[in-house]
Amino acid sequence: MENNIMAIVMAAGKGTRMKSKKSKLVQKIYGKEIVKRAVENAEKAGVKDIVAVVGYMKEEVMAVLGKEVKYAYQEEMLGTGHAVMQAREFLKGKKGKVLVLNGDVPILRPETLNKLLEKSIENKEYATLLTAIYDNPTGYGRIVRDEGGNIEAIVEEKDTTPEQKEIKEINAGIYCFDIEELLLALDKIKPNNAQGEYYLTDVIQIMNEKGLKTGAVIVEDNTEILGINDRIQLEMLTKVLQMRINTEHMKNGVTIEDVNTTYIYDDVKIGMDTVIHPNTTIKSGVQIGEDCEIGPNAYIREGCKLANKVKIGSFVEIKKAIIGEGTKVPHLSYMGDCEIGEKCNIGCGTITCNYDGLHKSKTIIGNHSFVGSNVNLVAPVTLGDETFVAAGSTITDDVPAYALAIARQRQTNKEDWNKK
Ligand code: UD1
Ligand code: MG
After folding, report:
1. Which ligand is nearest to the CA of 74?
2. Are 25 and 15 a contacting pair, CB within 8 Å?
3. Does the pLDDT of residue 1 top 60, yes or no?
4. Same domain, 48 and 120
């Protein structure tokens, strides 16, 4: 039988501390729902077979996760062990490994999940836990090890002895289990503890009693395993993600003048020697070439693709803009739904009028064109190569290549008018 690698994401929890009309799991962190990130982390680790255990506001959670995952339902919140029991049908008859993840832990690195998987396979462990060393372990399950360093049990805060309370190694709530042995262990979990819950963590002791090998991976970066319960943690983890992404770009050769005010969302590509000035936001999926200059105060929205040597200056917002090499949009512009060729200059205050209240329309500008200051380009409209648009024009008709377009009222000077 083939060896499966599956994941179960526990996403049935309520999360009252968020003070929201929505489930906390569908709150967005850095542009993406918390639970969506949790699932994507498993996907990025190469896991294709994912089961989400949903309960509280399940329609909302399912609307976010869509058809990429399978669903198990937990009607009553009877503990983490009970949550995983609900996914039993998906595990039955299978061999291999299953990762168990918390739906409210969004910034776990896929590399960490792979480490967990690799260790469990190489060391033939039936349960491998992710643990962390915390100065203040309050609230977490403690990892109890014997003299040999083997894990004996996980003891929940409420069930700890005074000595166990001092233990600094905590359970992150992220596991890799052998599928068959997990199923057998789940049958043995009993809710005889301080909270009257079915603890998933009891699986460790159950496996130990059976003589099955268990182990742990200690996470290197403690921020990875943080969960989100309220808006304060939401902001904290947003900062962590922001710094993590900015650092990655800097390592790849991008200059970021101020990491604190630069917001680069997921899956953005930026070429070498591009400089990002302060107060710049770059949305998910944007592609920026080499030697570009972006900002300060620029807003690069979804669907933008910038070639090399493009300049996007201050107070410029662009959306779905495909911009050719060497083109400049230096100040105070909105360029949306447009294709701009190479070496164009888009004057200060130029605006694409891309929306008529019903539809979005496109603006196309050929190579080597010059658009004067304060021009409105009423889409759909096409400017050919090497066109020149006079400042202050409102362009509603296409402009053929090499033409000068002027679309504004002629100036009249009334002599001596102001002497009266
Ligand atoms: C759990 C661990 C604890 C660990 C901590 C790490 C147990 C018994 N304890 O504690 O050792 O240190 O995580 O954060 O597992 N959930 C359900 N259904 C339930 C209960 C929980 O779906 O019936 C989900 C929650 O939505 C959440 C996750 O499981 O995503 C963890 O639940 P939570 O209550 O936060 O676990 P803790 O008791 O904090
Ligand atoms: Mg709890």
Report:
1. 1
2. yes
3. no
4. yes
CATH number of residue 74's parent domain: 3.90.550.10
Ligand 1 pocket mutation pick from 80, 177, 228 by most atoms within 8 angstroms of CB: 80
- Please report whether residue 232 resides in a domain: no
- Residue 368 known to be catalytic: no
Digit-coded pLDDT (tens) for 82-141: 999 999 999 999 999 999 999 999 999 999 999 999 999 999 999 999 999 999 999 999
Rounded to the nearest angstrom, the distance between the alpha carbon of 44 and the centre of ligand 1 is 23
Smallest CA separation from ligand 1 atom 36, residue = 80
When divided into structural domains, the chain yields a total of 2
Marked catalytic residue, from 82, 331, 359, 368: 331
CA 164 to ligand 1 centroid distance, Å:
19
Percent of the chain whose predicted confidence (pLDDT) is above 70: 100
How many angstroms is it from 251 CA to the middle of ligand 1?
A: 36
| Beta-sheet pairing, 142-145 with 151-155 | antiparallel
Q: Is residue 414 part of a domain?
A: no
What is d(CA 200, CA 76) in angstroms, rounded to the nearest whole number? 15
The number of the ligand nearest the C-alpha atom of 55 reads 1
DSSP 290: T
Q: What is the Å distance from ligand 2's center to 197 Cα?
A: 9
Q: Count the residues in the chain.
A: 420
Residue 155 pairs in a beta bridge with 142
Would you say the C-alpha torsion 158, 159, 164, 169 has a positive or negative sign?
Answer: negative
Going by pLDDT thresholds of 50, 70 and 90, the confidence category of residue 3 is: confident
**What pLDDT digit, counting tens, does each position of 66-84 carry?**
999 999 999 999 999 999 9
Q: Which residues line ligand 1 (CB under 6 A)?
A: 10, 12-13, 53, 74, 77-80, 82-83, 102-104, 140-141, 154, 156, 170-173, 199-201, 227
- Domain hosting 78: range is 4-225
Token pair belonging to 250: 């800097």
Span 232-274, pLDDT tens digits: 999 999 999 999 999 999 999 999 999 999 999 999 999 999 9
Q: Which of 126, 148, 129, 145 is nearest to 211 (CA)?
A: 126
Of 162, 190, 225, the position where a domain reaches its end is 225
- Looking at residue 2, what is its pLDDT? 66
